[in-house]
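Hey everyone, long-time lurker, first post.

I ran two proteins through the pipeline my lab uses and got sequence/structure pairs for each. Pasting them in order. The first:
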Amino acid sequence: MDVERVLIACSAALVLLLSIQNRSTESEPYEVPLEEIPQSEVAVSATQEDTQQTVVYYEDGDGYLVPVQRDVTRQEGIARATLELMVQSAKNDMDAARLGLSPVVPEGTTFDLDISQGHARVDMSNQVLDAADKEQEENMRTAIVWALTEFDTVKDVSFLVDGQQRDTLTHGTNISGSYTRVGLNQEEQTVETFAGQSEVQMYFPAQDGRLLVPVSRTVYANDDVATAVFEFLRGPKADSGLETPLPDSVQLLGVSVENGVVTINFSKDFTKIAEQSDGGVQAMRALMMTCTRYPGIKKVKILVDGEPYDMPVEDTPTFANVASEVENSFPEVMMIE
């Protein structure tokens, strides 16, 4: 009995001592020496710091090309690495699916890329001839041109297939000559074209609200920010599958540009965007990206009947679709075990 009492007392004392030590440890910060940190954690931190941004062009379910800003490992040959992200493969398909998109280049395609004096020559392997149809071919050609011309060192692009010049791909898509940027996701014209036309590009939200889709429209006016805002207010075509970002009753009262800031004055019904399911966030992002694609435009200021409007997003967007933001906003879309 005496031995049991001694053991019980010792146990109680030990528990009390450990409790005091734990409280002391919690109240005093302790820095773990670098050599004691698991190497896997060090590797993750190093990887996060050693990245760079690039813009990849994917295709959505309606056939639109959608630009997405992604963080990739810092490396030489980032232009070719960007093209490789657009090739169909198990990994690339999964990365794109998390965004509700898909790669546009046939599986197995490889690239040999030469950039000199602003010209990029893309030599594609013969798997590029396996595109399903002409729509995929045209989207692939456009995606490659836009992805490469995102880089300041590239002004135009030409194509080879297995080192040989070709006039067309399997389904008749022209790849002869050199290509510069033309309108992305051009709207079909229902009337005959005339002299004096120009093309403006706007961003509209997709129906699921996840992404912003660029659309190019032919107009008979100057391609400037005022024209773009006016066309943005008109919204996408009825059969486009895209969302009209602003209420139909909103009127444009004025647009001015000064010192890199575009000021847009809307009628009072503009405030109804706050009633949208996301509080008008995507509508504002779409408007800002429509404006800031013009050289010199750095910020967007909104007025409602001449009074400043408190926007639900920052006034200096970096890019329309940021992969990490889309994934974090809609984590339920794709769960990976």
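...and the second, right after it:
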Amino acid sequence: MARLSQKEMTRLQGAMAIASFAAGVAIACACLFIVPPPGEISNSAISIVSELLVLAGAILGVKTSYDAKFVRIDAELRKKADKPESE
């Protein structure tokens, strides 16, 4: 399996964060407000699944955001370090 670059990994994590957050919100809205359950499904079981998906999306989103900021800061520091000082 080919290793992903930092930029590709950040994009993948961002897409996963958005997808899991959207899935959690969709499950919560559909199961709790729109579609009545065909059998007996506890509302707490539905809500915990949606909450865990939203949590996963939030955690991945925060990690992706910090990764992108760290890459930008690293690039700025490297550019300043490579730039010769004029005296």
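Reply from user beta_strand_b:
Welcome! Quick read of the second one: The radius of gyration is 20 Å. Helices lie at 6-34, 43-82.
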